[in-house]
Amino acid sequence: MSYDIEKALAYQIKKEIAQRYFRIRKLIEEDSANARTLLNKLEKIYTEKLKPAFLRIYSLLLDEDLIKEFSALLDLQEPPFLDEFLNMSQQEREKLIKDLEVHGWFKEKRFLNLLMDSYRMLYEQWKDYYDLREEVLDELELVKEEVKQFTKNYSLDDIMHFLRSLDMGDEAASKALGGTIEGRKLGQLDKKIPVVEDLEKLFERVPELARIPEPNSIESELKKVGEKAFLRHEGDLSKFL
User: Fold this and answer.
1) 195, 143 Cβ separation under 8 angstroms
2) Is the separation of the CB atoms in 172 and 13 below 8 Å?
3) Which candidate, 110, 106, 116, places its Cα nearest to that of 70?
4) FRET pair for 236, CA 20 to 30 Å: which of 28, 30, 47, 206?
5) Rg (CA), the chain
6) pTM higher than 0.85, yes or no?
7) Which helix (H) or strand (E) holds 6?
């Protein structure tokens, strides 16, 4: 009699451990999926928002040396997307700036206003990008810590040994474990959580990034770069002013 009680108690303990294992595993997989979603969103902002914002400013400055001066003001080692800009046609460059709102009394003033307005747009998009980047890193750190605690506290071999000892089908096993493996086959569970193997690769996809200066803090320096551009290319730029 006591043997049966001990056996039932041992079964119940193992069952509860298995239930916790799969609940936490599911949570890690959900958090990992959320991190991937945020990371994809981050990369989309980089290519669809930041890239045009940089290329728009380059299309106003035109010359590579002035673009590098601008990049230095932002404390960037290299101008992002410079090679892509250098390979753009004149039509592609003009398309980026033709719809910008122009304001000011004189051509040079209107041009400098265009340049500053373009930088303000870049700054706002960069700020959003930076904030989302921090959110992605926080989410990945959360997953990393969850995985660390998970692998420390649970043995996949022990869990699978218990599941096989149940000698049940997939549906019955899921019911016995409170639905924690619902929709999965037992044969699919004896593998590591996918994120464990590629977590570092996800971290590598998050770019190194510093904050760029607020527009007011570099306005005078940026306008000096703009004055050089206007002096060199007034004829080409006048069509937009």
Assistant:
1) yes
2) no
3) 116
4) 47
5) 29
6) no
7) helix 2-45
